[in-house]
Amino acid sequence: MSANDAPAFGVDSEVGRLRSVMLHRPGGELRRLTPRNNGALLFDGIPWVERAQAEHDRFAGTLLEHGVEVLYVGALLAECLELPEAREAVSVSVTADPRLGQTLGRELAAYLADLEPERLAAVLVEGLTKEEFGTSGSLRHKMMRPTEFVIDPLPNMMFTRDSSVWIGDAVAVTSLAMPARRRETTLTGLIYHHHPRFAAVPKLYDPSLEHLEGGDVLALAPGVLAVGVGERTTPAGAERLARKAFEHGRIHTVLVVPIAQRRATMHLDTVCTMVDRDRMVMYAPAEQRLEAYTLTSADGGASLSIKGPKRFLDAAADAIGVDRIEIIHTGERDVVTAEREQWDDGNNTLALAPGIAVAYERNTVTNARLERAGIKVLTIPGSELGSGRGGPRCMSCPSARDAFADA
Ligand SMILES: NC(=[NH2+])NCCC[C@H](N)C(=O)O
Question: Where in the sequence is the active site (predicted)?
Fold first, then answer.
């Protein structure tokens, strides 16, 4: 693909000049977090909501200043919800929750049917409590506490990277592993299936399939994906994605990378991200430790060849066809700084072009190392956003980057 015939959509690498990205500006769903539910909702603290929004606006502002189109989930959803078939699909998926029961389910469908698209879009992300819902003739409702949820909030919606991922010209709506996040894909799925902008885009995956999260999928170079397998993505999910990607035809090698099943390394993109064509920022201990299985297919995904495991960085260099991938370490050589900055998403950077990356300002040591290596680092504040344990990469889902060859 040259710049002239590059598709309106598509992502063939982590670093091609970023053209369009999907973000979610955090809103009322963060106000639902309490010290009792934050663990189950996958937050490590209780964010100050206005400050988190201001930080997010700085992130979006940085992208806009660099010519990136910013699409917001809230606006896309509201536009979809103008369509009767999209409203119907949403209502069916929300009211299918067996915890509601027949009566409350029916009442909730009627409640949702009365909401304007924008309000409906907000409720779907912010959730709805018993007291906000109002009166009901159901036993379920009578037996709920006032602040209990009729619709659960989705505070992790701002991590748009996880619920969908673009592979070439196609999009994979993923299958999220954690109960607190599962409903996110009914909303991203709705956008990709119903929004006129995306309706014609080929769909590679769906939420009923084996667990797969976008934070585990790295487009290392054209034709080459790395897929982390650990707390979220399962081996079965990685295998399914590989088959589908081979079948679709743009990918020739999928590297499946086992990662520790711990919160600190919930996704591959918490351990490493690409900051340049052949340079990665990586948590130092992972450099030797990470291994990869190399998956290829001679028949478009019908059968798979599985080789390895061998050292991830060697497998990656082989698959990409370069001598080596240069590593810039998170933190300093001392373990403590490295561990602190890895935890604070020091290597969860978002490349805007080869050698230009957005990073949280707090990771001063990692950012200085990146700068020393010649990477232009655009810093954003993240003291509140960071309590959700995600950085610039997870808070963004690129849908268009310039082709790697032209970047
Ligand atoms: N791709 C990522 N690293 N995403 C971060 C997601 C953070 C979110 N709180 C979760 O636990 O799921």
Answer: 394
